[in-house]
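Quick check before the chapter quiz. The format below is the same one you will see on the exam, so make sure you can read both the input and the output lines.
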Amino acid sequence: MSSDTENTIHETAERYRNWGRWGDDDEAGTLNYVTPEKIAASARLVRRGVVFSLALPYDASGPQTGDFGRTNPIHVMLLSGTDHLAGEPDLPHGFGASDDAVTMPLQCGTQWDGLAHIFDRGHMWNGYSAGEVTAYRGAVRNGIEKLANRIVTRGVLLDIARYKGVASVEPGYAITEEDLAGCIESQGESSAVGRGDAVLVRTGQLGAGKQDGWGTYAGGDAPGLSFSTADWLHRSEIACLATDTWGVEVRPNELTDSFQPLHQVMVPNMGLVVGEIFDLEGLADDCADDGVYEFMFVASPLPFTGGVGSPVNPHAIK
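Here is the expected output.
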């Protein structure tokens, strides 16, 4: 890493560091911006009773290639209907059942990065040592289970692809603060971003992957947030951020010889909870149709004790 790049990353990390902001024992980061009042207000955004699942199906046709150790889910049957018809297991009175199992990396599909997922110079969120994530116990601090009841709030969709007038933003395009502000202005009052909101950014890349084949979607070039948006993310006091891309930030990364530098600022320093591979296509179409870009957002991670990430079936409710 060049010294200029290293200095830029480290200075930015320290400028937007929230360690201790919610106490020395905090393990929820920016989700602390979500108050009971915020949750109650988000429920009042449900006007039509329409629910959008933002999850990509968890199956063998997902985007993963094996890079970074991530594969698509492997689903197997433990008991099937053909077993039942063959008399197995031998249960009384015609009783039968099916049962199944899945093997998958916790971050292979629509997922949250936990606050123990990214380290900065030996530390994770709130200054805890990276050594508190062990091979035996997983994340002793900042485990994903600590967030199991924390992600219910007002959601806002920022449809950057529609704002730019394209089906999918070009890989390598860095979304700036000016882009975010312009998108908010073009979409109107319902997309104004405030404290404790969940911000969902659509680039169209996931929709293109579903239609044309995944190619290098997982780990390859992608549109995404510019490193320069760190100030906006911090200043806006949002609760969480999710996109329809593999890695949220622009790839190739803007800074010379860096790897996911915005993650290094957002997760361990800012305490921002980050989501990836969110399917925003149906929601985006509906928002464009009715002109309403806000909704109740419910997206609890699965409480894997010590997990550093989690699959999720996020819901936008309008």
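If your answer matched, good. Residues 164 and 187 are 12 Å apart (CA to CA).
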